[in-house]
Amino acid sequence: MKLFEIAALLGCSGVEDSIEITGMNTLREASAGEISFLSDSKYEKELENTQASAVILPSSKAHLLPKGVIALPSDEPYMSVALLSKHFSKPIRSSEVPPVIGEGSVVYPSAHIENGASIGSNCTIMSGVYVGADAVIGDDVILYPNVCIYRDCRIGNRVMIHAGSVIGSDGFGYAHTKMGEHVKLYQNGNVVIEDDVEIGANTTVDCAVFGSTIIKQGSKIDNLVQIGHNCIIGEHSILVSQTGLAGSTTLGRNVVMGGQSATAGHLSIAPFTTMAARSGVTKSITNKGVYSGFPLMEHKMWLKMQAKLAKMLES
Amino acid sequence: MKLFEIAALLGCSGVEDSIEITGMNTLREASAGEISFLSDSKYEKELENTQASAVILPSSKAHLLPKGVIALPSDEPYMSVALLSKHFSKPIRSSEVPPVIGEGSVVYPSAHIENGASIGSNCTIMSGVYVGADAVIGDDVILYPNVCIYRDCRIGNRVMIHAGSVIGSDGFGYAHTKMGEHVKLYQNGNVVIEDDVEIGANTTVDCAVFGSTIIKQGSKIDNLVQIGHNCIIGEHSILVSQTGLAGSTTLGRNVVMGGQSATAGHLSIAPFTTMAARSGVTKSITNKGVYSGFPLMEHKMWLKMQAKLAKMLES
Amino acid sequence: MKLFEIAALLGCSGVEDSIEITGMNTLREASAGEISFLSDSKYEKELENTQASAVILPSSKAHLLPKGVIALPSDEPYMSVALLSKHFSKPIRSSEVPPVIGEGSVVYPSAHIENGASIGSNCTIMSGVYVGADAVIGDDVILYPNVCIYRDCRIGNRVMIHAGSVIGSDGFGYAHTKMGEHVKLYQNGNVVIEDDVEIGANTTVDCAVFGSTIIKQGSKIDNLVQIGHNCIIGEHSILVSQTGLAGSTTLGRNVVMGGQSATAGHLSIAPFTTMAARSGVTKSITNKGVYSGFPLMEHKMWLKMQAKLAKMLES
């Protein structure tokens, strides 16, 4: 899609450049040929180093762009991004190349492997499994019945995913009109699951808006867990059943989250942190420790609070 | 089924009428040829206007019925309804008419479309999807792998349902014997999903006992959400991941429910209400605003309470 | 596998016995030919009556074993059990015997029934269902689309399981190395679901480590519920949507758990106990009653606490 076509689509006048734009990305991740955006002023300082060819942003910020980066002025940059994201979304099927199945792998007849996908050696791909276009599955992987891997996702070696889990479904992102309608931000990223990860049954891991949602090596995730778009789960972390992570939260290595715990989005959790069952995390955690409650506090403070509440109850 | 047969089934003596009864419904929704019931005295005033042909109710309430409506006296009306509901439940398969697939639609080979169902044009019905008898799917719909649409459900245009979600599973309703056993109330209603709705992965939406569970136009529902029987979700509402709604709750338009929030059953939530993550709603909300906590309170009060609790902890 | 081979595998010197070991089990459940273990000293008193042929345990406890039971000393018994569990895990497919389908049962073409499984009479096994090796399904069972029954599970008569539910996925159990890595404890047990149980959509029930996870007769389980390994759900219990039970918890008969409630592991809940929605149960309940809150308290105390908190807010 040429830049002047994008400008016309978004209603930006005066942009005549015919450079070919191949995709969208964040200010930090974008490279030449990609378009980026500034919809939240807290990322303003990332403008100066962006490698994007063009940036959607409020006209008042256009002067902050490096020389050679083209401004696409917008009163509602996030809405412009949503409108444009549809044009860069990939179709469900896009490849003519038959899937590659490695030596020793068993694929049940009712599994559906799209063109462009590849499956390593010694895998077991059970009944009803779906593997999307251009997805890459490593060696010695077991996908239990009815697991769904969306397009472009990458699954490492010795990964085990239990029945019904969904990897790479769209993140939950919309721009909102003044009339209260929601315009879908198409999710063009993927999910990367590293080696030796185990995922339970009926868990969901959303793909990234741009880039990757990442579950790092050796992490273990229980049943009915929700992992939002662009989360990063550190190595050897443990997420117990019914835990939920909102988008763009990063866990360090060896983080433990108890059952039914949850984090808000855009947080950073220190390595080796433990959050007890039912914890509700609304702020980043910089010091490892054991935490509880909602709002979150040190576990020993939570115990103290329960003691005080019990005493209040007796009075 | 003839009325005297129903009376015999329920052990109501003295009912000889041979009128054909075609179904069951609520007092308010029932029409001629249907049977209704009074199991909770708070609906007593709906007796006088019911269009039902017959009503199951305590004998002490029979005099409140309009002229011409036949009483089926029962000491345990809800148990009688449960016993009768089985006889009006529809079989999984009931049609000889092959499904209709609209122009431009792609149906993967492992999808199963029952007889009597219809799918509009330009749809993508992916692997492992199930579409039940007499279900109606609109145009430009995407059903991702292993989505299950139970019989009689209706899906609007431009609806997108992510992998593994279940639309129209039975609501959770039972009558209880004195011995503590549970008798299933067969759920004979459906789910109606209007245009431009998006539903995430592994979410569940139960069908109505009678009538419809409704998700109105433009609403967006995240992963692992539970929507109980007979709920109505207003236009352009947003339900974040792991939210749960018990049966028969109605949300107005543009309601937002944060992650892991929940409502009890039979509530009414005002349009444009926002409930923060983890909210637990046990009473109806008549004034729009931002609410938090369990029990629910205005969000600013919740913040105040947290401040007071923190102070208590320091003392 | 011969005992001296196991000893070599685990690095226990001096064990030369060539007795054939056929499986692993708990101290209480093990019989001759099985190996057991002591990894938590609270089970120490079960050593004296164990019928196991050999026991993995700290060398300091070896003198507590009955005569004739062979000790396999280990500094990290739980890790030894995890390492050994892999060798006793059953393959996904292990039988050459074609599945048996009872009279009057309908099996949709896209369902996958493994060899060694049997399905009773008058069942409906819908599209995309998976029934694992040696699983036994009773009579008059309905498995809705994409239900997955793992190997060895046993489903009683008149059981109904709604779409997408997973029965018998691996419990969430790992031994942890000093480097913070997690070694899978292979889950070699099964799930037993007794007669007249109904299970909602997208619910998950994990198999037992050893022995059985059991859902007793007449229990009703809603959508998106998590039941951990080795739980026992008493007769006619009711678990409302999004409830979660950690491993090895036992509910008595007619227990009710409200929506989004949860229990920790290894608890015992008295018969006829009701836990309100959102209850969080961290200790066993010995007296039946109605309970609420997290931490759990009598419901009337919870109401009193809410009143006191409301009063505090006004001050």
From TrEMBL, chains A, B, C:
Residues covered by the UDP-3-O-[3-hydroxymyristoyl] glucosamine N-acyltransferase non-repeat region domain: 19-86
GO cellular component: membrane
Superkingdom, natural source: Bacteria
InterPro entries xrefs: Hexapep, LpxD, Trimer_LpxA-like_sf, UDP_GlcNAc_AcTrfase_non-rep
Lineage: Bacteria, Pseudomonadati, Campylobacterota, Epsilonproteobacteria, Campylobacterales
Active-site positions on this chain: H229
Claim: Lipid metabolism is one of the keywords in the record: yes
Gene: lpxD
GO function terms (MF aspect): N-acyltransferase activity; UDP-3-O-[(3R)-3-hydroxyacyl]-glucosamine N-acyltransferase activity
Protein keywords: Acyltransferase, Lipid A biosynthesis, Lipid biosynthesis, Lipid metabolism, Repeat, Transferase
Name of the protein: UDP-3-O-acylglucosamine N-acyltransferase
PANTHER family associated with the record: UDP-3-O-ACYLGLUCOSAMINE N-ACYLTRANSFERASE (PTHR43378), UDP-3-O-ACYLGLUCOSAMINE N-ACYLTRANSFERASE 1, MITOCHONDRIAL-RELATED (PTHR43378:SF2)
Task performed by this protein: Catalyzes the N-acylation of UDP-3-O-acylglucosamine using 3-hydroxyacyl-ACP as the acyl donor. Is involved in the biosynthesis of lipid A, a phosphorylated glycolipid that anchors the lipopolysaccharide to the outer membrane of the cell.
Family stated for the protein in its record: Belongs to the transferase hexapeptide repeat family. LpxD subfamily.
SUPFAM superfamilies documented for this protein: Trimeric LpxA-like enzymes
One Pfam family named in its UniProt record: LpxD
Biological process terms in GO annotation: lipid A biosynthetic process
Subunit structure, as described in the record: Homotrimer.
Pathway: Bacterial outer membrane biogenesis; LPS lipid A biosynthesis
Family matches, as Gene3D superfamilies: Hexapeptide repeat proteins (2.160.10.10), MurE/MurF, N-terminal domain (3.40.1390.10)
EC number: 2.3.1.191
Catalysed reactions, as listed in the record: a UDP-3-O-[(3R)-3-hydroxyacyl]-alpha-D-glucosamine + a (3R)-hydroxyacyl-[ACP] = a UDP-2-N,3-O-bis[(3R)-3-hydroxyacyl]-alpha-D-glucosamine + holo-[ACP] + H(+)
